Structure formats: structure tokens, C-alpha cells
Amino acid sequence: MTNSSAPDAYCVMGHPVEHSRSPWIHARFAELTGERIAYGRRLVPLDGFAAALADFAAAGGRGCNVTVPFKHDAARLATHASDRVRRAGAANTLSFRADGTLHADNTDGLGLVADIVRNAGVAIAGRDVLLVGAGGAAAGVLAPLLEQGPRRLVVVNRTQARADALVQAHADLALLQKTELKTQWIRRHEADFDVIINATASSLAGDAVPVPAEVLRPGALAYDMMYGPAAQGFMDWARAHGAVPRDGLGMLVEQAAEAFAIWRGVRPPAAQVLQELRAQL
Q: Measuring CA to CA, which of 59, 155, 187, 188 is 20 to 30 A from 28?
């Protein structure tokens, strides 16, 4: 007997969202795992995230991914939240439970670490890492980065207070890992890192790279969380200054794989899907 029921509905919510590759990724995961899901994009008005969530839940939605600028809202609206969400104050993966509650998790950092360590083959343990930005994207990756045990992790942000608050929220974890965690204004003589991660929206807005080239050690990994044309400026800058550029496409696929596993209890083949997506682009 064939199952004629509709596939389970999921989506990505953001503003902007039309550039998102998540629908293709999740459709491919579903194909490769035999899971029946339908996954779409939802452009949400800047003041309409709570209403959009309620609408999607009422229409039978099972879960959603959350992208800029709603990750902090997603964490605030959740009934239950993972440790990662509580620490970051930001969520990117929401699950609507049968009892009407909303569960929040954050798979961004897991995806980032998997892409850097496994896919790019660059160790974070014992290295010096610079995290540029202190918004939802940066908040979501700081704990998983610290769990890798870097020697030093510096957070820089246009608004110093925001960077300080993020560091404070992770101070106990840094202590546990024996990692020097701090914020600082980048001055040339101290700016020297093995891994630089751009977690700002500067790429999406087409703005200049928000740190001086002196942050790059020769051969450093310069990672932009954006991908495609949005990341090109940062990657060109990194290459021109002797660093190894990498965009966030692998992070996108790896964090999606983590979300898919949360929703469906099945781990999709992320490496295969990343390879296919790179070939497309």
C-alpha cells in the first residue's frame, strides 16, 4: 500500500533568504536517506519573525532553519533550548514538537568545525584563532570552536560591548579548555593568527573586510561564513595577502546535516552533497 500522506514540511526563514541553498541541500539529503520531507524558503518581514513561526506551525510545519537576522529571536521564542543555544543566545534550528512546544538548537558551530577540521584538514587545537563579529553567527560558533581547544581565541567586533558580553558568556568554557579567550582592538604588532573566521554580514553587504591584512599569518586559513559571490571579496583579499581562502559552503552543508539528524534521526552523507554542490557552483 502506498503512503499518500503529504511529506513533512520544513523551511528556512530569513531576510534575505532567496540566495539560500538550503532547500536543495535538504531535498538531496531526503533523496539519499529515503526521508519524505518538503523544504522551502520563507522571506520574513524584519518585524514579523514570531508571526511567521506561528503561521508555519499552524500550517503543520515540523521544523525550520533560521538565518540572518532572526537567530537571537529564535532563541528567545523557544520553549526548550540546548546548551549551545543558552550559551550563545542564538538558534538556527527549530523543531515543533507534538505537544505544541518549540525546541531550539544551534548547529552552526558544529558545521563550521566539521568543515574546517574534517573537510579542510586544518586543526584548531593549539592554534591562534580570530573570530570577527559578535552577532548571532559568531555567538553560535564560539562554544564549538572553544571545545576544539585553541591556544588563543580573540573576538573582535565593531561594538566592543557586544564582543565583551560574548566572551563573558563563554569564559568558563575557555577556562576548562585552558584557552586564552579575549576581545581586543587589532593592533598590528599583536595581530597574528592561524585561523581567521569572518562571522560578520560585511560580505553579504559588499562591505570592506573589517580587519587589517596583518591578522593573517602566511598560509593562515581565512574563512568566510558566507559562500558564493558574497564571499568573493573576502576570499580575494585573503589570497592576495598569502592566506588560504575558504568560503562557508561546507559549513552550510555540515550544519544542515546536523539539523537534518535532529529532525529525522538519520545522518545524511554531507561530504557527498558538498561535493555535488561545489560542482554545481
A: 59
With a CB cutoff of 8 Å and minimum separation 6, the contacts of 61 are 9, 10, 11, 96
Contacts of residue 278, Cβ cutoff 8 Å, sequence gap at least 6: 249
Question: CA–CA separation, 129 vs 192, rounded Å?
Answer: 9
Rg for the chain, CA atoms, rounded: 19
With a CB cutoff of 8 Å and minimum separation 6, the contacts of 268 are 28, 29, 32, 33, 257, 260, 261
pLDDT at 228: 85
233-237, Cβ contacts within 8 angstroms, sequence gap of 24 or more: 233/203, 233/206, 233/208, 233/209, 234/198, 234/202, 234/203, 234/209, 237/209, 237/213
Cell 534575505 appears where? 16
- 37 and 261 Cβ atoms separated by less than 8 Å: no
Greatest alpha-carbon pair distance for the chain in Å reads 70
CB 112 within 8 A of CB 251: yes
Catalytic residues: 71
Kindly give the pairing relationship between strand 93-96 and strand 102-105.
antiparallel
Average pLDDT per consecutive 10 residues, the chain (281 residues; last block may be shorter) = 78 95 97 98 98 97 95 96 92 96 97 97 98 90 97 94 94 97 73 92 71 92 92 93 96 98 98 96 85
Q: How far is CA 262 from CA 2, 181, 213, 276, in A?
A: 26, 30, 39, 23
Inter-axis angle of helices 22-33 and 249-264, nearest 10: 50
Does the global pTM surpass 0.85? yes
Write down the pLDDT at residue 191.
Answer: 67
- What gap in Å lies between CA 48 and CA 50, rounded to an integer? 6
Report which secondary-structure segment, H or E, holds 253: helix 249-264
Q: Report the alpha-carbon angle 267-273-279, nearest 5.
A: 170
